[in-house]
Amino acid sequence: MKRINVVGTSGSGKSTFSRLLASKLDYPYLEMDAMFWKANWQESSDEEFFSILKRQLSQDCWVLDGNYNRTALIKWQNVDCVIWVDYSFSRTLYQAIKRALLRSITKVELWKNTGNVESLRKSFFSRDSVILWTIKTYRRNRVRYSEMFQDPNYRHINFVRVTNPKMAKAYINQLRSDRMT
User: Fold this and answer.
1) 45-51: long-range contacts at Cβ-Cβ below 8 A with a sequence spacing of 24 or more?
2) Quick check: is 132 in a domain?
3) Sequential DSSP letters for the chain
4) Rounded Cα distance, 24 and 18, in Å
5) Can you tell me the distance from the alpha carbon of 121 to that of 98, in angstroms, rounded to the nearest whole number?
6) CATH number of the domain to which 149 belongs
7) Distance from the CA of 123 to the CA of which of 11, 46, 106, 134 falls in 20 to 30 A?
8) CA separation for the pair 87, 92 (Å, rounded)
9) Domain coverage including residue 77
């Protein structure tokens, strides 16, 4: 397992899981949001985004964090494993709210050299709210990934569904054990 894509609804914990997984495997951690977002919350064109993604995925091994469903043909062409972080709606929403609140208070730059930070207004009182996005996409993502996991076009991929933090921790610990033997 050398090329892994971790997917899940915003707030599901996919970035935390991806970073931990990349660290345990000693693989590069690739964040799709960092590839997509430019300074001042400007979006990359598909041409720019796809070019960056292809370049990053040309490495021998990686853990790719992110959905961007329009990129499935690119990112899943040579992927070995797709891990779906699929926690309950209540847990995912709680995590999204907690993360948005912390980011709004700390004003931490989300992606290097972009200046992009979350604000209370943007996170909680905007049509672009990540919390609203989580609410709107949770069920749709569950249907989409359930279907994609069954799609014969992706039979070359090992699909893993992680449904709670205990299962996620056990999965990573098992990988660590497997590498030591």
Assistant:
1) 46/70, 50/74
2) no
3) --EEEEE--TTSSHHHHHHHHHHHHT--EEEHHHHHB-GGGPBPPHHHHHHHHHHHTTSSSEEEE---GGGHHHHTSS-SEEEEE---HHHHHHHHHHHHHHHHHH---SSTTS-----HHHHHSSTT-HHHHHHHHHHHHHHHHHHHHH-GGGTTSEEEEE-SHHHHHHHHHHHHHHHH-
4) 10
5) 15
6) 3.40.50.300
7) 46
8) 6
9) 3-88+143-180
84: Cβ contacts below 8 Å, ≥ 6 apart: 6, 7, 8, 145, 149, 159, 160, 161, 162
What token pair was written down for 37?
A: 């977002």
User: Model confidence over 128-178: pLDDT tens digits?
Assistant: 899 999 999 999 999 999 999 999 999 999 999 999 999 999 999 998 545
Count up the domains in the chain and report the number. Answer: 1
Query: What are the CB-based long-range contacts (under 8 Å, 24+) for 116-124?
Result: 116/37, 116/39, 116/40, 116/41, 124/100
pTM value surpassing 0.85: yes
66: left (phi over 0), alpha (psi -120 to 50) or beta: left
Across the strands, what pairs with 63?
4, 29
Supply the pLDDT for residue 179.
54
68: tokens are: 């961007």
